[in-house]
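G., the chain you wanted modeled:
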Amino acid sequence: MTETELRSSIPLPTDVAGGPAPADAVEAPTEPVFQGRFAHGNEGYLTLVWRRFRRSFMGMMGLVLCVLLIVMAIFGDFFAPMDPKRADLAFAPPDHIVLEAPDGGFSILPYVYPIVETGEFDPVTYQPLTGPDKTNPTALAFFVRGHRYNLLGLIPADIHFLGAVDGRPIHFLGTDKFGRDILSRGIVGSQISLTIALIVVLLTTVVGTFVGIASGYLGGKLDIWVQRFVEFVLAFPQLPLYLALTSLIPVTAPSNVFIAFVIGVMAVLGWAQLSREVRSKTLALARIEYVRAAIAVGSSDMRIIGRHILPNVSSHLIVAVTIAIPSVVLLESFLGFLGFAVKPPLISWGLMLQDTGTFSVIGSYPWILSPVVFVLITVFAFNALGDGLRDAIDPY
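Predicted structure as tokens:
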């Protein structure tokens, strides 16, 4: 049977009188012709961005690490196994963690052998030698009781995520020159380091966006004078200026005042580059047809900026924020290493790196470089997140 004969053999729909039904009486298919992975319906812009973003392995890894870092910073005292201000054995190496029970069998829960002085001395440095005490193991467990703290600064608590069952001191990354636990200080220090980074990036983003949009959209003499001022700010060598400004703070100033001044200095010197980028985006958007049409029908400048300019600049701002955060973390760590960022008794990653100022300390106690790991993870996490967002927002 040919194709023509096959089609003619299919009965046509009929009306009530038995004759052939009109063409408009034939029901249209209710399902779309093409179904599958390319039929996404009426997806919004954010849904499309998320669908592209989750295909990026590095972007998703950066997102997970950023969330973990923020959670660690918020609940720092809960995750810290030790009191960050408690002094024990100075320059104690990291504890030995094993899954071997004291009787020699396998154990699900790990055991820690505490580090004690062996009674011997190094023949070169004459420093007392330390080693694990095999006769005095310590069992580890989750959600154990330890030193008291205020959860979120309000709720008194003494439960810690991981610690010794019997409350003995444990040092997963060793101790510093004062015998303080490096891991606990690194976890608690993330609160100061990340807080400084987030506040500085927030201030620079708000100021840079406002100045860039105003300069690019209004134009004229305002644009000329604003850009000359931006060039004046960018012309300064930032590092000497950071050191000069932070050295103006009295040594006896409270820690909160010192941190506020450091944040202010970083924000004042960090907004100019972002304003240049936003201005270039605004100049391009101001020439698009729908913006010129909005101007022609008499829309106010605030409405045009809020409805047309700012939403189109926001994608660039999101990526710029995720890339600026690790830059501020690195800057704070560097200034803290030089002693110009955070003062004791506060804790930050840069302040912890001051102990690595001499080669003899690094050579004898290499675990003192552990705070660098926190900085590296933070920089990698936010850079990976920024790259993933950039590819998802602008895939072309």
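The first strand starts at residue 96 and ends at 100.

Shout if anything looks off.
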